[in-house]
Design a protein that fits this description.
This protein is mainly α and about 140 residues long. It has a domain at about 5-75. Helix content is about 55%, strand content about 0%. It is elongated, with a radius of gyration of 27 Å.
Length: about 140
């Protein structure tokens, strides 16, 4: 069963891929390495996540992460490591598609509807005489 990839993690993969593609366009020597059919962006990201995990740090500068990505492609023999199930946070805004925005809107409407229906289904209990607050006219 395939797991649904979270939007931040997908954005991380896309960001790494875009960076590497741009570097390959501007650096002919790197372009040769980037064209290696035995390597993939997915393995590159797995390598980066394993390096981050080994470091024990929670935050990295963009240059550090991009450096790890380039290192993965430049090394012929490199230990990628096992895939890591985690959520990655990127430091830029993730734009939702119109379809995703509509789905989020529908989810919010459905949640509100379900909460209101649950309130209506709860039996209303009459207040006990001891719970009725006296008014000023009762004194």
């Amino acid at each position: 069963m395939a797991t649904k990839e979270n939007k931040g993690t997908r954005a991380f993969n896309d960001t790494i891929k875009a960076y590497l593609e741009e570097k390959a366009e501007n650096d002919a020597l790197f372009a040769v390495k980037f064209a290696n059919p035995s390597k993939s962006v997915e393995d590159c990201v797995t390598y980066i996540l394993n390096e981050v995990k080994k470091s024990g740090c929670n935050g990295f500068d963009d240059a550090e992460i991009y450096g790890m990505a380039v290192h993965y492609w430049e090394e012929d023999e490199i230990e990628v490591g096992n895939p890591i199930n985690c959520k990655v946070v990127v430091n830029h805004t993730v734009e939702l598609t119109e379809e995703e925005k509509e789905q989020a809107r529908q989810d919010a409407i459905n949640k509100l509807r379900d909460e209101e229906m649950a309130k209506m289904r709860r039996p209303s209990q009459p207040k006990k005489a001891s719970e009725v607050q006296p008014s000023l006219f009762d004194f």
